[in-house]
Specification:
The structure is a single chain. By secondary structure, this protein is mostly helical. 61% of the residues lie in helices and 3% in strands. It has helices at residues 41-69, 78-132, and strands at 26-27, 37-38. A two-stranded antiparallel sheet has the order 1-2.
Length: 137
């Protein structure tokens, strides 16, 4: 049984902050005695989708950063070219950062996807055990 506040899919929530309001999951009691979170299947699925959605936003933002990285000077004078070079440099830095953020979000989504697989395997094993003893769900 999950103890403490539980994440509710589809609801606005915020991470624990200085005021210590834990509303994004159940802390501790991760099953193995260590620290962790416990989520139900619906929550795992929604979190996986939220991480993928965020990754998609970072991917979309990379298109704008690509435009910045390719900007051309409006004129042929030194000042215009110097300004354009600074903008291109900023665009390349932004592009690298957005790519890193997208990869991080995808890795988080994969972790929730893996947890979903473990959740389903546990459910199947529990069902098989109950069925073996002659019980029903």
């Amino acid at each position: 049984m999950v103890e403490g506040p539980v994440y509710e899919p589809g609801r606005d929530w915020r991470l624990p902050g200085p005021d210590g309001v834990p509303v994004a999951g159940a802390y501790g009691g991760g099953g193995d005695g260590g620290a962790g979170f416990e989520y139900d299947e619906e929550t795992l699925r929604e979190l996986m989708h939220e991480w993928n959605d965020l990754a998609n936003e970072f991917r979309d933002d990379q298109q704008s950063a690509q435009l910045m990285a390719q900007v051309q000077a409006p004129g042929l004078e030194y000042a215009s070219e110097g300004n354009a070079e600074q903008i291109r440099s900023s665009g390349l830095a932004l592009l690298a950062t957005l790519d890193e953020r997208e990869r991080y979000c995808r890795s988080m989504a994969k972790k929730f996807e893996a947890a979903l697989g473990r959740y389903a395997a546990t459910e199947d094993a529990n069902y098989a055990e109950i069925k073996q003893t002659g019980g029903t769900l």
